[in-house]
Automatic annotation (TrEMBL):
Organism for this UniProt entry: Robertmurraya mangrovi
One GO MF term attached to the UniProt entry: prephenate dehydratase activity
Annotated protein name in UniProt: Prephenate dehydratase
Coiled-coil positions: none
Pfam families: ACT, PDT
Length: 287
């Protein structure tokens, strides 16, 4: 079995893959759309990509690509704790505070805003495709005064020094990753305990009807269906046009979720199931 992940080696996504699918062949891709394309083109059986971080919110490219470009079903979810460290090339370990630029994934930079503001005020931060891509870049440019924000595995993998550990602004820093397949896929091969089931639906509202979102939410509320997330994203058809991604606690073949969906359709909403899947949790991440 093959799984595509946001690479290169030693990203947080890689750590999640190692925990979730230790016996699979894990293949790194440089971007999230590349990972989804790999599944669509049947180069891999699965893709595992980040979708939401507790400090920074949704990974929009994942949601948007799934909704607008490529409808692959979500077949699983995994949550992992995230610890961010400041890495430098060993050549600069004594004078790490003199760095002139800091590289990382945009979410990692956002997770360390307070640290960056207090320690590196005025120093530019530049986005890379992943935290490990930033670490690898440092290794390839040993003379430049640069730092990367990444995990301890990236420090080991790319021979870098941890100049300052745990620089994320809040302790509860977790990321959710989703697992995508081309068709149905049952996750059996994992040692991680299953925490429950979720169903994710995409809902579009009938245009210009007052109270439409209220009616949508009440279809779930009176059935006592617990929603764990609701996110609005632009439809990309004009200002003010949004769709909603709603995560419901529970499995699709329960009577209640099909009932709620039928009620939404009767209200004139568009409803599409993006997946009904088990979710798992890693208790302890990389240090
Ligand atoms: O860049 C990485 O290492 C990723 O896997 C994406 C990411 C970035 C920041 C927090 C969690 C995941």
């Amino acid at each position: 079995m093959k799984v595509a992940f946001l690479g290169p080696k030693a990203t947080f996504t890689d750590l999640a893959v190692r925990e979730m699918f230790p016996s699979f062949e894990a293949i790194p891709y440089m971007t999230i759309p590349d990972c989804l394309d790999a599944v669509m083109e049947e180069k891999t059986d699965l893709a595992l990509v980040p979708v939401e971080n507790a400090l920074e919110g949704s990974v929009n490219i994942t949601l948007d690509y799934l909704v607008h470009e490529m409808k692959l079903p979500i077949v699983g979810e995994i949550t992992a704790p995230i610890k961010q460290h400041l890495l430098v090339h060993p050549n600069h370990k004594e004078n790490w505070e003199d760095v002139e630029i800091i590289y990382s994934h945009s979410h990692a930079i956002a997770q360390c805003h307070k640290f960056l503001h207090s320690t590196f005020k005025g120093i530019p931060c530049e986005n890379m495709t992943s935290t490990a891509a930033a670490a690898k870049y440092l290794l390839e440019h040993p003379d430049n005064k640069m730092a990367a924000i990444a995990n301890d595995l990236a420090a080991k993998e790319y021979g870098l020094t941890i100049a300052k550990s745990n620089i994320h602004d809040f302790n509860f820093n977790h990321t959710r990753f989703i697992i995508l397949a081309k068709d149905t896929f049952e996750i059996t091969d994992t040692h991680l305990p299953q925490k429950g089931y979720k169903t994710t639906v995409m809902v579009t509202l009938p245009s210009d009807r007052s109270g439409a979102l209220h009616q949508v939410l009440s279809a779930f509320a009176w059935r006592k269906l617990n929603l764990s997330k609701i996110e609005s994203r632009p439809m990309k058809t004009g200002l003010g046009n949004y769709f909603f991604i709603i995560d419901i606690e529970g499995q699709m073949d329960d009577v209640l979720i099909p009932g709620a969906m039928a009620e939404l359709e009767a209200l004139g909403c568009g409803v599409e199931v993006l997946g009904s899947y088990p979710y798992f949790q890693i208790e302890k991440g990389s240090e």
